[in-house]
Design brief:
The protein has 271 residues and is an alpha/beta fold. It has a domain of 142 residues: Sandwich (Immunoglobulin-like), CATH 2.60.40. Strands 1, 5, 7, 8, 10 and 11 form a 6-stranded mixed beta sheet that branches. Helix 2 runs antiparallel to helix 3. The N terminus and C terminus are likely disordered.
Length: 271
């Protein structure tokens, strides 16, 4: 496995500042620091592919330069009349196949690692709507609340990033397995947080399941990643990764505020 340098940087940032904040920035080239096992493996696979692609491109470039120098008109006034070369043709067929097989092994390992959901500590249901998210906590009291993008007036008070901050973020405990169940209430949406390595479609009439385990305290942002209508760009995602004690305190306060009598659920939008 490759060294997960970005995850190390994220951990270092958290240790220095107490919490990390994962949001895109101007002129960003690389990915956001990985804070989950899934994203760390995605970065490892990305790095492996980058090395392979770079080697292949340099090899092809070297061949092109060699052919241009060795077989130009000045060096070969009489062109070659070779029709085929069995060994060469076998090589340029079998070598790419071997490279693809080599890539397939870690690719399938990553896919199975993402698909196999460990026993969850927390279960959250994210319902995509035009154009906000509703979050349900079915195993923690059966309450739900709506999460809208902050207005400019709200953002001026909170200092949240523009188009990313929300009025009611989701809280999850650090180092705990969170199962995320997604569905759509109207059209197809997609719940995506880059630092978690999570992107799961929210399809009406269907439940899609994925998971993440955030290992670094902080605030992490994402957005709906499926074109869902006129305000598609205005339904962000904000997840706060906190300690177990902070999570339990938030859970108790939120449950008290939004859970209806008898364990029923109700929408908690204050807008």
């Amino acid at each position: 496995m490759f060294l997960r340098s970005t995850a190390f940087v994220a951990a270092l940032m958290a240790a220095m500042s107490g919490a990390a904040q994962a949001a895109p920035y101007n002129w960003q080239i690389g990915m956001q620091p990985a804070v989950t096992p899934v994203m760390a493996r995605i970065e490892d696979f990305h790095t492996l592919l980058l090395y392979i692609i770079t080697a292949v491109c340099l090899f092809v470039l070297a061949l092109l330069i060699w052919v241009m120098i060795r077989y130009n008109q000045r060096s070969n006034p009489v062109p070659s009349k070779v029709h085929h070369n069995t060994m060469l043709e076998m090589a340029w067929t079998l070598i790419p196949v071997a490279i693809l097989v080599f890539i397939a092994v870690p690719s399938f390992r990553l896919l199975y690692f993402e698909a196999e959901i460990p026993k969850p500590d927390v279960t959250i249901k994210a319902i995509g709507k035009q154009w906000f998210w509703t979050y349900e906590f079915p195993k923690d009291g059966g309450f739900q609340f709506d999460s809208y993008m902050q207005t400019d007036a709200q953002r001026a008070k909170t200092g949240e990033p523009r188009l990313l901050g929300v009025d009611h973020p989701v809280y999850v405990p650090v180092n705990k397995v969170v199962e995320l169940d997604t569905t759509g209430a109207d059209v197809i949406h997609s719940w995506a947080v880059p630092a978690f390595g999570v992107k799961m479609d929210a399809i009406p009439g269907r439940i899609n399941r994925t998971w993440f385990k955030a290992t670094v305290l902080g605030t992490y942002y994402g957005e709906c990643s499926e074109l869902c209508g006129a305000n598609h760009a205005f339904m962000p995602i904000e997840v706060k990764v906190v300690s177990e004690a902070e999570y339990q305190a938030w859970l108790a306060a939120t449950k008290k505020k939004y859970a209806a009598d008898g364990g029923a659920t109700r929408v908690a939008a204050d807008n």
